[in-house]
Amino acid sequence: MFTGLVTDVGTVRKAEHRNGLTLFEVESGFLLDQVALGASILHNGVCLTVVDKGQGERGAWFAVEAVPETLDKTVLGAWNEGTKVNLEQSLKLGDELGGHFVFGHVDGVGEIVSITPEGQSYRITIRPPAAIAKYFATKGSAAINGVSLTVADALPNGDFQVAVIPHTWEVTTLSELQPGSRVNLEIDMLARYVARMIGADAPEGQ
């Protein structure tokens, strides 16, 4: 379980394909003793398990593995050496929930349509896959590359917009986005359950 509040931006230092898996080594500012083998860490919105670790120049480096399904259904398939990654360690009992509940299960990959400065902030327009567009509601929550954001506007064509404050822009990888960039999207779990309860997401024939 995560909050969508990024605690560090890591850097991929190795991407190695082997035995049907892809191993990513990520260097971060986390202290080595803060990263446990078997721990879950959110990487651009994808929950991955730590399988190895060591000490790097910035701090700890750790290794995670991704299966082909994960690479196909998220932006991780485009990662290579030097890619910047939003990181968040999993919640512990007693931690403050400052964002919203994020599960690390990507629902689809969206495309950045536009990025418009609004004073010191930025308004980003995102085009989600058509199958999940109905879940993004004005004032609802969404995770964009693992960052918890409030939907500023849900547009009639299915696109939605988020407003990003300067702090979030500076301490995440959102500032590296540009029109055409692909981003991991996770639907607010509340929206998913509401849709199911009212029948909007019920299997055909029921």
Radius of gyration: 17 Å
Q: Write the CATH architecture name of the largest domain.
A: Beta Barrel
Secondary-structure element series: EEEEEHEEEEEEHEH
Structural class: mainly beta
Helix content bin: 10-25%
Total of helices: 3
Largest sheet: 6 strands, antiparallel, barrel
Q: Which stretches are low in confidence, meaning pLDDT under 50 for 5 or more residues running?
A: 202-206
Arrangement of strands in the largest sheet: 1-2-5-4-3-6
Overall structural domain count: 2
Write a structural description:
It contains 3 helices and 12 strands; from the N terminus they run E-E-E-E-E-H-E-E-E-E-E-E-H-E-H. By secondary structure, the chain is mainly β. It folds into 2 domains: 8-89, Elongation Factor Tu (Ef-tu), domain 3 (Beta Barrel); 108-197, Elongation Factor Tu (Ef-tu), domain 3. The chain has a 6-stranded antiparallel beta barrel with strand order 1-2-5-4-3-6. A 6-stranded antiparallel β-barrel has the order 7-8-11-10-9-12. Residues 202-206 have low confidence and may be disordered.
Quick summary of this structure?
The chain is 10% helix and 42% strand. It folds into two domains: 82 residues, Elongation Factor Tu (Ef-tu), domain 3; 90 residues, Elongation Factor Tu (Ef-tu), domain 3, CATH 2.40.30.
SSE blueprint:
Blueprint: E1 8-18, E2 21-27, E3 40-43, E4 46-55, E5 60-66, H1 68-73, E6 84-89, E7 108-118, E8 121-127, E9 141-144, E10 147-154, E11 160-164, H2 166-171, E12 182-187, H3 189-197
Antiparallel strand pairs: 1-2, 1-6, 2-5, 3-4, 3-6, 4-5, 7-8, 7-12, 8-11, 9-10, 9-12, 10-11
Notable traits:
single chain, about 210 residues, mainly beta, Elongation Factor Tu (Ef-tu), domain 3, 2 domains, six-stranded antiparallel barrel, 3 helices, 12 strands, globular
